[in-house]
Write a structure and sequence with these properties.
Blueprint (H helix, E strand, L loop, with lengths): L7 H6 L3 H4 L24 E3 L2 E5 L2 E5 L15 H4 L6 H10 L5 E5 L8 H12 L6 E6 L1 H4 L6 H8 L4 E6 L8 H12 L4 E6 L8 H13 L2 E7 L14 H9 L12 E6 L4 E4 L5 E5 L2 E5 L5 E5 L2
Bound molecules: pyridoxal-5'-phosphate.
Amino acid sequence: MRMPTLNHHLIGLIHKSSFKKQFIFKKTELIPCGFKDPLNEDKFKKTKGLIYRYPDRVVLTTTNRCFAYCRFCFRKNNWEHFEGFSLKEAIKYIEKNKQIREVLISGGDPLTLENGELEKILNNLREIKHIEVIRIGTRALTSNPKRINRETVNLFSRYKPLWIAIHINHPDEITKEFRESARLIVSSGIPVISQTVLLKGINDNTGTLKKLFCELVKNSIKPYYLFGCDAAFGNGKFRVPTDKALELVKKLRGWISGICMPTFTFDLQKGGGKVVLEPNCLVKREKNRLLFKNFEGKEFWYEDI
Ligand SMILES: *Cc1c(COP(=O)(O)O)cnc(C)c1O
């Protein structure tokens, strides 16, 4: 596994001990565990860098370069063994498959590409009539916020409807520069959502998650997914047991605003896809009456039709 170097922005923040574990190699990663390709994305590759798993949307892995190289990356195998990306082939495939209405530009981090390269991708996608929405997944706001400037935002604006999905795992990642980048994007009418990975020793406590999600909403970012950590090579030390994870979610649901609450999701191994997990609130059912446990742990009967 390549030992990535940290960029300037991350080095400036590395004294914040709680979240630096995301980026710094530790020997415990060498404990053998996990899979090379935990989501079995290879099985769903249609062309070079195009993953088609769900009926109406595709992912493009446009690069293997990233601003962060998180130690728990589920695509860490791509760091060294990237098959590349063919825009021409991807466009041809999407053109032919008219049920695809959304394209998720991912990587690596697609914002490591030059604006010109990015524009070429966006432009080609926008020429396809059935493509309604473009989504860009990036860690730029948290790991290289200066990448988001007036020029970048103008580029995004030319290809609306376009959504930005950011990756963030800890409230310490919300810096002054982060806020400024978020403000630039949001004020140009581009919605921003966030994805977080639940990580042992980094954010696996109610306080940290609550603070992270509420701060995101204060910055007009909608927490979208909270993911279980995928079983990629060496990820064992980061993974939170499911029961504990559900306990954490239970302490958030209802206790924080619904806007602040992401959907807790696993991406199943062997390519099963995403499944949503919620603590079970249905206690029992008797004919048309259902007994529920609310967020406070109190039980209430509900009359069904
Ligand atoms: C997560 C994912 C998507 C996007 O799924 P959403 O639920 O729409 O966010 C699309 N394709 C693949 C392969 C994915 O892993």
